[in-house]
Design brief:
mainly alpha
């Protein structure tokens, strides 16, 4: 299955996972948390005082969202892998059938070769027998007919 033929929600999930599963996102998220803690811990900003409950809630919501996006993307990847494995199994069956057919053809060729060898031996034997018979009944050349 190609990406452009996917439903919108699966394309969105795959693109989000690609963006969020990167070092850029991890370092950006870590930077925001550090700045949040510094600004609120030192009292420069007072929208979330220690123990930073609001930040914890936001992180929990973001985690819940990302978990679901990852599940959607994994579901798509599992379906794609299943289809690929089914295709590979069918291909393997076809190759096995082809190999069996080739093996049967090879066996038939071996049998034909055995028959040809037997025929060749019989032909050589028959040729020798013919020469022997011919030599037995050969009339002498110095004998004149009346």
């Amino acid at each position: 299955m190609q990406k452009h033929s996917l439903p919108f929600r699966e394309r969105l999930a795959l693109s989000l996972v690609a963006k969020f599963a990167s070092w850029t996102w991890i370092l950006t998220e870590l930077s925001v948390i550090v700045i949040w803690v510094i600004l609120n811990g030192l009292g420069i900003m007072n929208w979330d005082a220690p123990p930073f409950v609001f930040m914890g809630i936001l992180i929990a919501i973001l985690t819940l969202f990302l978990d679901n996006v990852i599940l959607i993307a994994n579901s798509y990847q599992n379906r794609s892998q299943t289809k690929m494995l089914e295709y590979m199994i069918e291909l393997g069956k076809a190759q096995l059938a082809s190999m069996r057919s080739q093996e049967e053809n090879l066996e038939a060729q071996r049998e034909t070769l055995k028959l040809l060898e037997k025929l060749s031996r019989e032909s050589i034997k028959l040729e020798k027998d013919c020469k022997t018979t011919k030599n037995r009944y050969k009339t002498p050349q110095n004998v004149h007919k009346p």
